Amino acid sequence: MNPELDLLKPYPFERLAKLLDGVAPPDHQRLLKLSIGEPQHAPPAIVVEALTDNLDLLAKYPSTRGELDLRAAQARWLSKRHALPSLDPDTQVLPVNGTREALFAIAQTCVGHGQGALVGSPNPFYQIYEGAALLAGAQTVLLNTDEDTNFLPDPDAVSDHDWKAMQLLYLCSPGNPSGAIMDKQLLQRFIEKALEHDVVLVSDECYSEIYPDEAAPPTGLLAACAAMGLDDYRNCISMHSLSKRSNLPGLRSGFAAGDAKIIAEFLRYRGYHGSAMPPHHQLASTVAWNDEAHVRNNRALYREKFAAVREILEPVLALNSPGGGFYLWPRVPIDDETFTRRLFAEAGVLVLPGSYLSHEANAKNPGSGRIRMALVAEQEDCVEAAQRIASFVRTL
């Protein structure tokens, strides 16, 4: 067996199941889950129709590169969304089976198995970043993102030694779990460091289409490149998904875009990896990327939920103000594991301890003392969960 498998840490939800072992929610209340970031809004009817109308394509092998119509739709969407001067669907865009799969695979493509190889990641982080680094034979460098940094990573917090040894750095904006937005200036600071040390920057932007102000969408890595005249997006890859944007987590559909040289090597890896998107998924995805009406409606639903939940929780919890995504990341009055276990047992609400999403780095765990709440259920359930949480906190 691959000995590097032994380096993988338990997934946060494995740890959560162990934490809750032996306790049960109250019998008189239905369990309300705010623990998993799985969108619960209805998928767009036009996408479902495109999927079901093309099931005959199951009889055909898909292309790893993806059909040109899909790549063109993705390039067109990203260029319009971020006002990019150019994005070639033949060389700078590659469909992927959701960002989770692609975030893992890009490390296997870009990281060389050499002594001392490093992969950077924000801390807290999406567990895939760490697993991808370890199975690529690298170690991780964690950039703490907490209140002291406005929940944003700082390129100057990485030592010169680590920058020189780093081969890939993951960024996430809007951040998981804080929802913090990296502005163009901060992204450009990372780009400058990456170019100086020949580091591949991979920006996980799967939450980029869920934001509170319709007039102020979050910027992205490729937009920051273009603004500094880096039209070839050198060393930069951004990843996007339909899971959150279009409520299609089961479709497993997204794309990677950016540096044509990296995309070409990523395609070569994926040809062996066997990760071509099914043809009917490609057609349905093309429809989704070509439509913005359902995305605006989706944002409106989240906006209403956040407003309703904040009104209930602000009097009892210190809430953050996410610039995007669908999580709240409040500080809690007792340690996050105890809070989670007691909330489950006494109020029938399931959340995720913040310390499960991060590691100790620089003598602190930036997720400790916080919980992640995913406001993905229907508004009625989110409001009821918030009311139960507020009542529970008042008993502490």
Helical residue percent?
Answer: 25-40%
CATH architecture of the largest domain: 3-Layer(aba) Sandwich
Read across the widest sheet, the strand sequence of neighbours is 2-8-7-6-5-3-4
Number of domains: 2
**Corresponding CATH superfamily of the largest domain:** Type I PLP-dependent aspartate aminotransferase-like (Major domain)
Could you spell the SSE succession in H and E letters? HEHHEHEHEHEHEHEHEHHHEHEEEH
Regions with pLDDT < 50 over 5+ consecutive residues?
A: none
CATH topology category name of the largest domain = Aspartate Aminotransferase, domain 2
* Shape summary: globular
The radius of gyration is 21 Å
Mean pLDDT: 96
What gap, in angstroms, lies between the N and C termini?
48 Å
Protein architecture, described:
There is one protein chain. This protein is α/β, with parallel strands linked by helices. The protein has 14 helices and twelve strands. The strands form three sheets. Strands 2-8-7-6-5-3-4 form a seven-stranded mixed sheet, with helices on both faces. Strands 9-12-11 form a three-stranded antiparallel sheet. Strands 1-10 form a two-stranded parallel ribbon. α5 (127-135) links the parallel β3 (118-123) and β4 (139-144). The radius of gyration is 21 Å and the shape is globular.
